[in-house]
Amino acid sequence: MDTKEKLAEALRAKMKEKPLSRITISDLTTAVGINRQTFYYHYHDIYELIEDIYYRETMRAIGNDNTIETWQTGLAKLFHAVQNQKDFVEQTFRSISREHIEDFLYSIMENLIINAINDTSAGLLLKEEDKKLVADFYKHALIGMLLSWVKDGMRRNPDEIVAKIEILARDGFTPAISTFVKNRQQC
Fold first, then answer.
1. What is the pLDDT of residues 131-165, one digit of tens each?
2. 4 and 82 co-located in one domain
3. What angle in degrees, to the nearest 10, is found between the helix axes of 158-186 and 128-151?
4. Does residue 99 carry a pLDDT above 90?
5. What is the CATH number of the domain that holds 97?
6. Most distant CA pair in the chain: distance in Å?
7. pLDDT tier for residue 62 given thresholds of 50, 70 and 90
């Protein structure tokens, strides 16, 4: 286990003992057995450590499920990863600016969607600005669904949510790409 993973585990353990706002870098470095300078070598502050935890967990969950055929699997894995870290997610949502977490999730989702768009539009003349527009629309919709689900206590089955999202996307995503391409060809 590398230093970053040890710090992540130490933070999770401390969050079970006290609120995030009361956890110090000294708490973490003592738990891991490193000095403060080693912490600062990896992170600027605890919030950057949290962002790294979200990033690592998200990337580990999604893996290579970021094509038009597999994005639903990637989204389901993201929902399950959030659900599996429910206590951590809920505490960070209460402690950190929601905007900070949303920005991170939007970035991850945009990459997932851009890959799906590139897969769908391979060989087509689709403007980059149109790809960005479609990605923005879907990333806001999907992350909005995820955040709403978290805010609601993660009670609904994530697989059911993703199955319904998949129907909405299937009936709207590919036709949207085709329409953008057709409109460009007419210009």
1. 888 888 888 888 889 989 988 999 999 999 988 88
2. no
3. 160
4. no
5. 1.10.357.10
6. 65
7. confident
Length of the chain: 187
Residue with tokens 């402690």: 95
Same-domain check for residues 31 and 123: no
Lowest model confidence (mean pLDDT) among 79-93, 108-122, 161-175: 161-175
Q: In angstroms, rounded to a whole number, what is the distance separating the alpha carbons of residues 148 and 106?
A: 14
Q: Residue 187, Cβ neighbours under 10 Å: how many?
A: 5
User: Residue 19's domain is classified under what CATH number?
Assistant: 1.10.10.60
Looking at residues 63-92, what average pLDDT do you find?
Answer: 81
The two structure tokens encoding residue 173: 């995503």
Cα–Cα distance measured from residue 69 to residue 138, given in angstroms and rounded to the nearest whole number? 16
> Count of domains in the chain?
2
Expressed in angstroms, the distance from the first to the final Cα of the chain is 56
- Please give the residue range of the domain that contains residue 11: 1-43
The whole model's pTM is what?
0.73
Give the model's pLDDT for residue 13. 94
- The tokens of 1 are what? 């286990």
Distance from C-alpha of 111 to C-alpha of 172, rounded to nearest angstrom: 19
> C-alpha angle with apex 63: 152 to 68, nearest 5 degrees?
85
